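SEVERITY: medium
COMPONENT: batch folding queue
REPORTER: lab tech (J.R.)

DESCRIPTION
The queue accepted two submissions in a row. Attaching both inputs and their returned C-alpha cells so the on-call engineer can compare them side by side.

ATTACHMENT 1
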Amino acid sequence: MIEVSAVFKKLSGTEVLRGVSLSLERGRFLALIGPSGSGKSVLLKHLAGLIRPDRGHVLIDGVDVGATRGRDLEQLRRRFGFLFQNGALFDSLTSYDNIAFPLREKTDLEEDEIREKVSFVLEEVGLAGTEDKYPSELSGGMVKRTALARALVMDPEIIFFDEPTTGLDPIIAKSMLDLFDACHHRLNLTGVIVSHNVPDIFRIVNRVAMLHDGKAICAEVRDGAIQSDDPVLRQFTEGTQEGPVTYK
C-alpha cells in the first residue's frame, strides 16, 4: 500500500534523507524510530504529501504522492488522518467543533449527520460527553484523544501519528498506545507512528523502520520484539552505550 523508494531530501542545506526506502502493507502498523533530528517527522510529512522529495518516490497504492497536484492531491489526502504531536486543536473551539471542523470544511454533510459522526468518534476514543469542553479544560491525555477523534472522523484508510505520546506520563502514554492498537484493529487502519517510546511502541506495531545516516533500517516485529540482528537497530532499541552508533 505504501512504498517509499530512494527518497532524498535536503533542508536548509542539510541532507536529511539520503535514499530512504521502505514499504508497508495494507492494514499494518509501522513504528518510525531513530535519534532526534534523524528525519522521522520529515519522512512522515512526505508520506502525507506535505513535503515533496528532491529525488525518489512515495507511492500510495501506486499513486506518486510527490507528483500529485491540485484536486487529485486533495482527494488523496482525504484518505489520510494525521495526529500531530501537540494535538493541534483550535483553542477557541469546543471539542465538538474541533472534531466537526474537517467535516464542515471538506464535506456537504448536514449538521445532524455531522453530529452523529462526531458522537461516534468521541465514543470510539472514550470521550463521550465532552463535546462542550474547550482544550483548556481537557487534560493532556484528553487533548490527544480529541485530536485522535478528529483524525478519525473523515474515515481515513491511513493514519499518521507524529510523536503522539510526547508530554504524557508513562501510564497515560501506555493507555494511548492501547487506544491506537484498538482503533487499528477495529477500523482496519494502516498506520505509521513516529515515536521515541521504545520499547512500549513495539507492542502495537507489525514493522519498525529506524532512520540512521539518512536511510532506513527495517525489521519485522513479532510478540513485541524486533526480529533483527542489525547492530545499529539493536543498539538503539536496547539503549546500550557500546556499539556502532556514537552520540555526542
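ATTACHMENT 2
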Amino acid sequence: MTYDFILMNPPYDKNLHLKIVEQSINLLTDDGILVNLSPIRWLQDPLAKYKKTSDYYKFEESVAKHIKDLVVVSGESAAEVFNAAMIMDLGIYVIDKGTYDFYKKFNHNEIVDKVVDKETEVLNDKLEYNVSDGWRVRLQELLPVPTNFKNSPTAMSRKYETLHPKLSYVFYNGHAKDGKHWSAVKSAGAGGPKAYSETDNIPCSISFKSEAEAVNFENSTKTTFHRYLVLKMKTDQHFPLKYVPFMGDCINPRTGKKGYESDWTDDDFRKYFDITDSEWEEIKCTMKPYWM
C-alpha cells in the first residue's frame, strides 16, 4: 500500500525518528509528499564529514537526499509551543522521492573546517580526571550535559550550557583565590546529580605551569570566537572535544609567545585561523543573541 500524503511526528529516541522516516518514504507514491516534525541536529553537524559514524552519512541516501524543504523551529520556540525543556532545534521536513543536496546548507561550515584542518592540539588530549595539584582550570562547560539537565529550567532560557561565560574556574591545589575549596565554588547553571566534598579531587580539569597561563586559557574560552566554535560543534549532548583547539604549541600572531604564555583575543584567533571579514561578521551575528 502506498500513500499520496503522510503527516508524522515520530518518537525522538536516539535516531529512531530517522529510521521511521526512512521506511515511510518507501510508502509514498511517486508524487507523494511526507511532512515530518523531528530533530535536525543530524543535519546541523558541521563535523559530519570527519565522523565515520555520523547519523548524516547513515541516512544520507535514504533520507537526507529526499528532503525538498525544511523549516527550522528553534529549541526555544519548541519548548514554548510544547511546554517542554528542549535543548535541540526541530525541523518541519517536506520530503518526496526526488533528490536534493542539503549538506552544504545544514552541515558545511568553512570556519569549523579551517579550525579542524589547522591541526592544532585539542582539548580532549589535555583533560585530566580526579586530580587537584597545581594550577588548574576546571572546565564544566566542556563536559557532557548532566543527565538531569533536561529537567532544569535553565534549558528553557539557554540553548546550551556551554555558552554560559561563567563555567570555567582557576584553582591552585584545589582552591580558589578566596581560599574556597573547588567543590564550594557555585557554578552558574551547571551541576549534576553528584554532590562533592572537600575530600574529592577535581573531576575534570586542565593543568598549567602558572596562574597567568591558567587565566589566559580561561579567558580565551570566553571569547566570541571560542564560544562560536562550541555552539557549532555541540549539536547534542555528545560534544566532540577532540576537535576543539587547544593553543598550547601555537605561536600567538600578536605577541609571538607560545601557547597561553599570553592571552588569546578574538583578533588573535581571527589572524591565526585566517578568518575573513565576512566570516567574522557571520560569527558576530550568530553569537549576538547569546551574550548575557
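NOTES FROM REPORTER
The first strand starts at residue 3 and ends at 8.
No errors were logged for either attachment.
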